[in-house]
Every structure is written in C-alpha cells, then in structure tokens.
Amino acid sequence: MAARKSLNKAKKVKDMNGLHSPEKLSGKDYEHELARLHGELVKLQLWVVAKGLKVVVVFEGRDGAGKGGVIKAITERVSPRVYRVVALPAPTEREKSQMYVQRYMRHLPAAGEIVIFDRSWYNRAGVERVMEFCTMEQVNRFLELTPQVEKAIIESGIILIKYWLEVSEEEQTRRLEGRIDDPRKIWKLSPMDLKSYSRWYDYSRARDDMFKATDTPWAPWHVVRSDDKERARLNVISHFLSVIPYEDLKRDKQTLPKREKAHGYVEPDYPYKFIPELNW
After folding, report:
1. What pLDDT does residue 8 have?
2. pLDDT band at 16 (very low <50, low <70, confident <90, very high)
3. In 10 A of CB 179, how many CB atoms?
4. What confidence tier does 21 reach under pLDDT thresholds 50, 70, 90?
5. Of 29, 121, 133, 232, whose CB count within 10 A is highest?
C-alpha cells in the first residue's frame, strides 16, 4: 500500500511530448509494487486454471518499445505451463504457402492457459508492410478481415487483450544505441532492426491504418506510453489484472511433511563431476 501511495503522490514533470507524467520511480518503489503485482498474477493464474479460462495477450510496438521487458515482468514469477509466451521466427517456405493466420491459430490457448504473443498476426500490418515483405493488397485484405477473425476468436470463448507500446523517437534512439556495444543486448539489434529504425514515419502510417481498421469495440487496442520502462511494466500488469475478473482462491496453509528415515541408506562414494566453483 505504501508503494502505491508513493506512486500516486509522485511529483509531476513534463515529458518530451509536453504531457505531464510522474517522475522516475525509485528502484525500491518499483520492486515493491512489482512484487505485489506478481502476487496478483499468481492469483490470476490459479483462477484461470480453476475456471478453465482461455486468454490471449498481444504485444505490438516499434523496435525498442519495451515489449520484451513487459513480458518478462509478467512471466518471471508465474508458471510457464499457464503463462505461455509465443515469439515466432520468420515464416518458413511452407508457412508462407499457408493461409496467413494459420501459423498463429495453432498457438491459441486451451482451457487454463494464458498465451502471450510477442508480436503476432499484426506483423502483416507492421513489419511486413513497411519492409515490403507483402503487397499493399495483402495488407488491406488483412486489415479488412482481422476484425471478424478476432470476433470469431472471442466468440469461441477466448479473452483477447491487445497492447500497443508507444515509444518516442528520442527514447527509441537511446535504447537502440545502447544495444550496439552491450554484449547482453547485441542479439536484440538485427540488420532488420536497423532498416526499420530508418523508417519511422512508414511505421507511423502503418500503425495509424492498423488502429483505424482493427481498434474495435470487441477487441480494442490499449496504448501504453513506454518511455518510462518501469512505469510501463507496472501499468500494463495493473491493467491486465483489471480486465479479467478473478478471485483469490483461498488455499489451506501448507506445511512440509516429515522426511522418511534413512533405513540404512548411505551416500555412495561416487566420483560426481561437479562443475568448477570459482572464487567470485
């Protein structure tokens, strides 16, 4: 509760778009609030399994918008058997010959699962359009059909939630430049990322057309301001928890049982191959 109060009372500062936003969170406040939200995500996990819910969460946004960080924040304390992340590579030649949405549909959840798409079928409206991997005729056909496809998904009993992470030009530049010499992040900067970086306004036009065609009453886009990564993560998790009604399934307090007695068992004198223990 104290962490939430500190979030609400944070001093307001103007961001680069001239809008007021709270000043940067302290690491302590962020970790405290994230821990609380992780507990709620576990409660949601138990509820989804108990009630057999089927949930799909779509994350889209420009390169460097923070999709991976948000997804990691959601999934780092829950079961990967319930919260399943789908991040598909480029389609194979066989997949290119299939109906476009076919390779995504097979990843939709069964009862008791939450599937998180780190980029999704909206690749056609974004990267495929901008990088000219498909024709504008294919893009327009996709935008025309997608609302009805998503309506069918929802009518099948799936809860569909779509997020667009909105990052500013300046912050995207800062993040991508930070990947160039960081050995932990160099894998995040591909030749495709560099090409897409130069096409900021092509992506803006693609985003605008995508919103116009697919921001529907039954499957709306939820936009996340993501220049402040920590706040973006907390805001997404809080919103996600708010759109799925769930209850805290009370469980009996658990205690560890007594271990069995050795009954003569003796550890063997076996030459185990232990890894080196370095002097850190």
Report:
1. 42
2. very low
3. 17
4. low
5. 232
Bridge partners (DSSP) of residue 158 are 54
The pLDDT tens digits for 78-90 are: 999 999 999 999 9
**Which residues, 6 or more positions from 221, have their beta carbon under 8 angstroms from its beta carbon?**
162, 163, 164, 211, 214, 215
Tokens 């995500």 sit at which residue?
41
Query: pLDDT tens, 66-121?
Result: 999 999 999 999 999 999 999 999 999 999 999 999 999 999 999 999 999 999 99
- Is the predicted pLDDT of residue 15 greater than 60, yes or no? no
Q: Please report, for the chain, the start and end positions of each structural domain, with discontinuous segments joined by +.
A: 2-243
> Domain 2-243 adopts which CATH fold?
Rossmann fold (3.40.50)
DSSP string, the chain: -HHHHHHHTPPEEE-TTS-EEEPPPPHHHHHHHHHHHHHHHHHHHHHHHHHT-EEEEEEEESTTSSHHHHHHHHHTTS-TTTEEEE---SPPHHHHTS-TTHHHHTT---TTEEEEEES-GGGTTTHHHHTTSS-HHHHHHHHHHHHHHHHHHHHTTEEEEEEEEE--HHHHHHHHHHHHS-TTTGGG--HHHHHHHTTHHHHHHHHHHHHHHH--SSS-EEEEE-SSHHHHHHHHHHHHHHHS-------PPP-PPPPPP-TT---------PPP----
